[in-house]
From TrEMBL:
Gene3D superfamilies noted in UniProt: Cytochrome P450
Record-linked SUPFAM superfamilies: Cytochrome P450
Annotated binding of heme, by residue: C215
A Pfam family recorded for this sequence: p450
Source taxon at top rank: Eukaryota
Protein name: Cytochrome P450
InterPro entries according to UniProt: Cyt_P450, Cyt_P450_E_grp-I, Cyt_P450_sf, Cytochrome_P450_fung
Keyword tags: Heme, Iron, Metal-binding, Monooxygenase, Oxidoreductase
């Protein structure tokens, strides 16, 4: 068991490292891993040197950690977004109306538009609250005895923060199981929606954890997820047929009620399938090609 875990870990570290080094050597892509290895080579002309080998191991571990921490979490949040849009068509319509009003026709949303799109921001925040990718966070170990609110927590205890419960506390979130982006908005006094907690304020998104070991990739994830959601909503219509992957009929209401059954039951919560979800272009082929050809920085 221990050996097979070691072999798997080694494969997970070596495989992506080799792909990155190959791409770097061929000049086909930039790579932080490739750059760090080449700097290490310059510092240690003898590649048998133990310090050089230790540095290469650290670079591999850094690459592996970033890949492992970034990929499943981002995929989890993205698929949650798709299921939410398929189950709440009125939310999708409202988001698309905001995008159309702000962008006009023929332009994809970019980061420069973010503060003009409060409803899109509210959808992103709601995805992170509704189904956090790591519902009970990562386990931390106490390094000393602690007394907290009458509880004695001995040194060496494992502690998890229940992110799910915090985001589903009915005292703070009315109808917590419902996907309601409006809960993140308030009236700005002029009859327009404004965000309660500001734009791009990742620190108050509980799904990224908190404290000293808060997710280090949160700014990267925040940008990736926001842009994905904004661009998908600008260009696609997400809907669902009431048929799941085994051809059973599952109504929207049943799916909402039993959504948990469609997620994996482990520390990282993943949708096992997107039951009946359909994604179709909002625009014609010509209109879409025009958008992707546009020569603009995002
Ligand atoms: C939906 C996206 C993401 C979510 C929900 C998420 C969530 C989390 C959470 C809950 C933790 C544990 C915090 C704790 O221990 O209290 C964590 C740690 C971490 N995340 Fe993320 N993450 C996401 C994306 C990313 C990305 C894109 C990267 C890298 C590019 C990344 C890198 C890391 C790393 C390296 C740690 C460990 C930090 C440490 O232990 O000091 N994450 N993340």
């Amino acid at each position: 068991m221990e050996n097979s875990a070691k072999t798997t870990l080694k494969a997970l570290k070596d495989g992506p490292f080799e792909v990155a080094m190959k791409a770097w050597a061929s000049g086909s892509s930039s790579s932080l891993v490739g750059q760090l290895v080449s700097e290490a080579k310059n510092r240690y002309p003898d590649e048998g040197n133990s310090e050089y080998l230790a540095e290469i191991e650290s670079i591999k571990s850094m690459g592996f950690t970033a890949l492992a921490a970034a990929s499943d979490t981002t995929v989890s949040a993205t698929t949650t977004f798709f299921i939410a849009m398929s189950l709440y068509p009125q939310v999708q319509k409202k988001a698309q109306a905001e995008l159309d009003r702000v962008l006009g026709f023929g332009r994809l949303p970019g980061f420069g538009d973010r503060t003009s799109l409060p409803y899109i921001e509210a959808i992103y925040k709601e995805v992170m609250r509704w189904y956090p990718a790591i519902p009970i966070g990562l386990v931390h170990k106490t390094t000393e005895d602690i007394f907290y609110k009458g509880y004695y927590i001995p040194k060496g205890s494992g502690i998890s923060a229940n992110i799910w419960a915090m985001g589903h506390n009915p005292a703070e979130h009315e109808n917590p199981d419902e996907f309601i982006p409006e809960r993140h908005l308030q009236d700005n006094g002029l009859g327009e929606p404004e965000l309660k907690s500001g734009f791009g304020n990742v620190s108050n998104i509980l799904a990224y954890g908190f404290g000293r070991r808060v997710c280090v990739g949160r700014y990267f994830a925040d940008a990736t997820l926001w842009l994905t959601m904004a661009c998908v909503l600008a260009t696609m219509n997400i809907s669902r047929d009431s048929i799941n992957s085994t051809n059973e009929s599952v109504s929207d209401e049943d799916l909402k009620k039993n959504l948990e059954d469609y997620y994996t039951d482990c520390s990282l919560s993943h949708l096992k399938e997107l039951p009946g979800v359909k994604v179709l272009p909002r625009l014609s082929k010509e209109e879409l090609e025009g958008l992707f050809d546009q020569d603009k920085e995002i």
